[in-house]
Structure prediction request, 171 residues.
Amino acid sequence: MNQTTSYRESQKFRQWWMKVVISASAIGAIIIESYIMRKIVMGAEADGLPGLLLFQIVALFLWSLSLFLYWLRLDIKVDSSGLHVKFRPLHRGWRVFQFEDIQSCQTVRYRPLFDYGGWGIRYSRKGKAYTVSGDNGIELVLKRNIKRTVIVGSQRSQELSQAVNDNLTRI
Prediction:
């Protein structure tokens, strides 16, 4: 079945501190790698090789951390089957909220740190949240779920809410 997408958005972390962490991780890895290369070129002694291996592991971790944080993004789309959310690279497939399961949708302003403990995929007594940056989004009230609300952060929350509500009225 061909489903037309009425809304699409992709968000990345934009907080200044996230850029600092990514940059510091990458720079740290470069410094460690250059130190290791200098030791190898100068001829490291046999008793110093375990230390170089430890440095290599730390550098690999820092590279992996910086790439992982750089690649993190929240993809949102609305089509005729529902609201689809994917937090890359953590989700392999789309998390789908079918319109039949949504009771209501409205734009909200929330406090990510206070209400959900930060950004990302978060759980709290209020429900579940998919947030990346900012404090605007939509709140879905679900029909058949113990944790009845889901917050989806959006830079264009009015458009997202309109796309979901347009489909809710068709049901």
The first strand starts at residue 5 and ends at 12. The longest helix spans residues 16-42.
